[in-house]
């Protein structure tokens, strides 16, 4: 996967991002870890996450970010 320097930073990011809106809800923790590991192994270095992802589930309190953080 192509990577490039993010302008005006010291960061190297991939041209594709891994979306995580369903992590901790539709995508359980073990499957999320496999997806993140595979993405990283393929050169991925950019993850799309937000504190509201998964909050639509009953009792949801940032389950996506909780999963990514683990």
SSE blueprint and pairings:
Layout: E1 3-5, E2 12-14, E3 18-19, H1 29-41, E4 47-48, H2 63-69
Parallel strand pairs: 3-4
Antiparallel strand pairs: 1-2
Commentary on this structure:
This protein starts with a strand and ends with a helix. The chain has a two-stranded antiparallel ribbon with strand order 1-2. It is 29% helix and 14% strand. The mean pLDDT is 93. The protein has helices at 29-41, 63-69, and strands spanning 3-5, 12-14, 18-19, 47-48. The protein has 70 residues and is of the alpha+beta class. Strand 3, helix 1 (29-41) and strand 4 (47-48) form a beta-alpha-beta unit.
List the defining traits of the structure above.
alpha+beta; 70 residues
Quick description:
The protein is an alpha+beta fold and 70 residues long. The chain is 29% helix and 14% strand. The two termini are 24 Å apart.
The main sheet comes to: 2 strands, antiparallel
Fraction in beta strands? 5-15%
Mean pLDDT: 93
Assign a percent range to the helix content. 25-40%
User: How many β strands by DSSP?
Assistant: 4
**Distance from first to last alpha carbon:** 24 Å
Q: Which stretches of 5+ consecutive residues score pLDDT under 50?
A: none
Instruction: Name the shape in a single word.
Output: globular
Rounded radius of gyration (Å)? 13 Å
Give the count of helical stretches. Answer: 2
What is the ordering of alpha helices and beta strands? Answer: EEEHEH
Provide the structure class.
alpha+beta
The quaternary organization reads as: single chain
Name the strands of the widest sheet in spatial order: 1-2
């Amino acid at each position: 996967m192509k990577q490039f320097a993010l302008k005006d930073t010291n960061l190297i990011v991939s041209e594709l991002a891994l979306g995580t809106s369903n992590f901790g809800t539709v995508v359980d923790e073990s499957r999320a870890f496999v997806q993140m590991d595979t993405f990283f192994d393929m050169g991925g270095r950019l993850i799309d996450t937000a504190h509201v992802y998964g909050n639509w589930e009953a009792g949801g309190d940032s389950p996506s970010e909780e999963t990514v953080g683990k």
